[in-house]
Design goal:
429 residues, 4-stranded mixed β-sheet, alpha/beta, binds inosinic acid
Amino acid sequence: MPLDMIIGAQWGDEGKGRVTDMLAAQTDIVARYSGGDNAGHTVTVQGDIFKLHLIPSGIIHPNTTCLIGNGVVLNPAVLLREMAMLTDRGIDVGPKRLKISRNTHLITPAHIALDKAKEARRGDSAIGTTLRGIGPAYTDKTSRVGLRAELFANPEELADQIQAHIAEKNEVLTKIYGAEPLDADAVAAEYAQFAQRLRDYLVYGSVYLDKALKNGRSVLAEGAQGTFLDLDHGTYPFVTSSAPTSGGVLVGLGVGPRMVGRVIGIAKAFTSRVGGGPFPSELDGEMAHRLRGTGDKPWDEYGTTTGRPRRVGWLDLVMLRHAARINGLTELVITKLDILSGIDEIRVCNAYKLDGETIDFYPSDIPSLSRCQPVYKTLAGWQEDVMDIRELADLPQAAQDYIQFIANETGVPVTAVSVGPGREQVIHL
Ligand code: IMP
């Protein structure tokens, strides 16, 4: 049984949670491989809305086991809050159903304080991070001074490491950023409690997955963020601090490439982004309002984690080709097709003009990308509401043409299209 992957093909918020939910029903294990509670996954089940940040969305299916992989940065306070919310709603989150890789790195209050201090210092050139401590936690990981979940099994060592960690971060916070110091004893006491509550959840993640795969169990790697937030392949420095791409799955779970089956790219039928950085097909004015929604529905384009209105624009196929190449996508799932109903003419960015030259790839440097002008192809829109349609042939011809155009231009088959937020509002191709 292979490892299938769900990868965001844009800047995150593509609707990966709902696709994970769709596939989790036939999957034994759903594993998160990167990012932390900067992610926000909204899943709607029979009108019930679940908003998850850290626990894989597979948890909503009773027969699925979930793993938080080593590539994740884990805030234990957020995890316990999410576990409590799910327990309240009747979902079992015991150690049989939820597991944490021992070598997952922990986020602490010091990482969050540093994230805030650094963003404030950046001023106008702020990245627009989610202020969840993600960057500082990954910085500690790569500086080889991070705290890992395995410390939950060793309370004395955990206490010592927390004391040393807070002492060091307090120096930086107070002397460099003029911020308030943290109380090391209070943090140590809090983390001792977390350890008690979470130590039974620890596993050797890579060994656990290997055994499962060899026993014929299926694994789904649940993406967070998206290809254009990848530290190497995204719009650096306006990116997150991990690898949400397919390479990140292998590193973030400890699984080899021969196990990989499907690499499913998820893309919205248009484009959105939160935070700073270039966005060639960005729209403002009436059409932006139209695509974003007013914010009164959970699926409107407002951040699940931060509540910020998302920047929106036309679909950008230069981006999707980049995502197909970087990730080796075997298929694409297009979400939110219903949002485009009622638009007379739909534009799709298919190339860029850079300093007078037409290019069909995504330049990696921000100055070049900032000068890129979108080259649009205009396609016919459709007026019909498509939310109740379940067969491709029943979609208006213009909607079918739109999907076919995406597949042709990216060279990746489209295998499903979502036409509404509900579990059942999907057309399988
Ligand atoms: P950080 O991951 O909090 O450091 O934020 C870095 C950038 O990634 C910011 O532009 C965030 O808005 C963006 N970002 C992080 N996580 C997500 C996500 O799940 N969806 C969309 N954008 C995200």
